[in-house]
Amino acid sequence: MAVLNHRKVAVIGCGFVGAASAFAIMESGLFSEMVLIDVSKDKAEGEALDISHGLPFAKPMKIYAGDYKDISDAYVIIVTAGAGQKPGETRLDLVKKNVGIFKSIIPQIADVNKDAIMLIVANPVDILTYAAQKLSGYPENRVFGSGTTLDTARFKYLLGEHLGVDSRSVHAFIIGEHGDSEIAAWSSANVSGIPINDFCEMRGHFDHETSMKKIADNVKNSAYEIIEKKGATYYGIAMSVRRICEAIVRDEKTILPISSIQHDNHGISDVALSMPAIVGKDGVECTVPISLSDQEIADLKLSADTLRGVIDDVL
Ligand code: 6V0
């Protein structure tokens, strides 16, 4: 087993998401070395310089544009490289294109480093997480996707706004696919231990069905809305990436809804999707069996079937 530098992180893909994640990571002070890699070396170099110029206002670290040989001792490798959907292109075309990019990137990572934790962010994140595990040969606990961490943050934010309460006091998860078949796990949602509907009523909201639908739809459509207005989403995912890195580096054993390959979870196997899981220094320790209603379980199975269908088509 190679000796890793536990203060070293790599970001592969320096577009909107990679650059914003690198910036959030720099601000976090979690690492002392960061390597940026992109097919466009100029892009990686430009971002490394720009972010480095903020260092006098942050904590010392080395940030540079590098190559795969530079990440042989990186502890965390974040993959954001991937094409975005073009007008007229189907979702399946995009999946094929990004799986193609992963077939080039992941073996290059695995050739130089077999011991890191690989965090997949590029979309469709569940399919690419599954592909990355198969292509890398890494153990499953060390390859996982940001999954519905961002969707869950959006969910908590909207619930916090709706209820006039700090979103950090809201405990609720979006599970399943990071995408159209995702599920809001209402049956376990609570505000500091108070069941969500009871808390709603305390705050003067009684029309639960309408509010639940509105909030869940809003979470699901957030990315579409932001992309329509500004072309891409990156700050929210950058903060999610930073939070996941924090859980790993500090061995927090935090419960986060990351995407990992499931094993007989409500009958779901051999597909990567998001369930709350304990995250620490070795990556994913285990998933946490939150209680779900019969409908939520049925919807989760549908989400898994959707993902399985795509895997069968492209891998
Ligand atoms: P972007 O701005 O087009 O950046 C992609 C970057 O990847 C570009 O700089 C490319 O040069 C680079 N790239 C392409 N191929 C390679 C390769 N083979 N090796 C190295 N670099 C390469 O896209 P953006 O940054 O906006 O999005 C990146 C990915 O993140 C997309 O798949 C998004 O859909 C996805 N997102 C995932 C989110 C999540 O919650 N998981 C949230 C937002 C976006």
Features:
Rossmann fold, 3-stranded antiparallel beta sheet, L-lactate dehydrogenase (NAD+) activity, L-2-Hydroxyisocaproate Dehydrogenase, Chain A, domain 2, NAD, alpha/beta, single chain, binds ligand 6V0
Distance between the termini: 29 Å
CATH architectural category of the largest domain:
Alpha-Beta Complex
- The CATH superfamily name of the largest domain is Lactate dehydrogenase/glycoside hydrolase, family 4, C-terminal
> Could you name the CATH class of the largest domain?
Alpha Beta
Tell me the number of helical segments per DSSP (H or I, 4 or more residues long). Answer: 9
Describe the structure.
Residues 8-145 form the Lactate/malate dehydrogenase N-terminal domain. The active site is at residue 178. The structure is a single chain. The protein has 315 residues and is an alpha/beta fold. Helix content is 44%, strand content 20%. The protein folds into 2 domains: 8-145, Rossmann fold (3-Layer(aba) Sandwich), CATH 3.40.50; 148-313, L-2-Hydroxyisocaproate Dehydrogenase, Chain A, domain 2 (Alpha-Beta Complex). The chain contains 9 helices and 14 strands. Helix 5 packs across helix 7. The longest helix is centred in the last third of the chain and has 23 residues, at 208-230. The protein is globular, with a radius of gyration of 19 Å. The chain binds ligand 6V0.
